[in-house]
Fold this sequence. Notes:
The protein has helices at 6-14, 26-38, 103-122, 142-149, 199-211, 260-271, 293-306, 322-328, 354-369, and strands spanning 42-49, 52-59, 68-73, 93-94, 97-99, 129-134, 158-161, 172-173, 175-184, 227-235, 245-254, 275-283, 286-287, 334-336, 351-353. It has 9 helices and 15 strands. α1 (6-14) crosses α3 and α7 (293-306) packs across α9. It folds into 2 domains: 6-173 and 285-369, Aminopeptidase, CATH 3.40.630; 175-283, Alpha-Beta Plaits, CATH 3.30.70.360. The model has no long low-confidence stretch (mean pLDDT 95). The longest helix has 20 residues, at 103-122. By secondary structure, the chain is an alpha+beta fold. Bound molecules: zinc ion. Residues 73, 105-106, 137, 163 line the site of zinc ion (ZN).
Amino acid sequence: MTDIDPVQLTQKLVAFDTINPPGRELACIEMLDGILSSAGIATSVHRFADGRANLVATLGNASEGRPICFTGHVDTVPLGNAPWKYDPFGGEIVDGRLYGRGSTDMKAGVAAFVAAACATNAKKFDARVMLIITAGEETGCDGAAELVKSGMPEPGGALIVGEPTSNVPMVGHKGALWLRAVATGVTAHGSMPHLGVNAAYKAAHALNKLEAFEFNQAPHPHLGKPTLNVGAVRAGINVNSVPDRAEIDIDIRTIPSLAHARVKEHLSAELGEEISMNPLVDVPAVWTEPEHGWIGDVFAIVSEVTGKSPSPYATVPYFTDASVLKPALGDPPTVILGPGEASMAHQIDEYCLVERIHEAAKIYAKLMEQWRPLRV
Ligand SMILES: [Zn+2]
């Protein structure tokens, strides 16, 4: 088989419009399915909505124990309001930068591990590898959640998330609990407010409580403290009516010791019966102790390929599909490690450095070739 060039593959992936919402990842997933299948790798496409699908690919023999897993998403965020200097679907390379929506976050990461898997398969290594390529990550790990709901994937021995880290391994991130708090009232004409119940006032009381909310939780030594932010408040339709509904969107970032069920209980007690709460996103924190043996192997391989020795306690500010996939895989050690630049994610004129894509493909190939699972 012919070698897959991870840079050219990134360009091909960038050419697909997989802006989410609405997503429409299927054509992109089918293209990857074709590449992996032609390389002799077993694949399965898991559709979960019209034009949307995840892809799972496995290499090696099941008797070899649990696979080393790589995950990445192919959906992207919208283009933003400002004009782009470069075609967001062009994949143009200028001064060593590959431009396009999703280049950094994270089609380059997907391209690098797909290229590494094809090369590893051709060399007939025994170790098992599983690729989990998802849709619908940007709106809250929806694709990964659909995959898990359908009974996938099988347990894994380790997990690498190819999200943008400039090829620096990161051992964790906070969880996210996004809630919509809703207050209801009774509408009336604005000239007769005594005939109604104003939902905006109920929301105002809730806002005061949210501002003063305390988690009463010791900070994590590396992820820090949990946080709470009110991101959006909506109430009323026009100036001369009593609003009968108010919404407060709450963004909570959690640490591993803080169970989301406990946070919800605590908040419900604080806000009282007047406020109902619906989860928008609910994904737990991810953390692996850097002292874990396999994490040590990852750092050794990264140092060997990049010539740099990264900090073992680095973490990423965003959340990833690992929140959903790590528990589903049986809680294996996990690193976030990918070629993109975290600072370019979701930006106008997003780019990924070409050199880092080659570097990531080398790192991933070594991780696959050197994978020695415990037989289970
Ligand atoms: Zn991403």
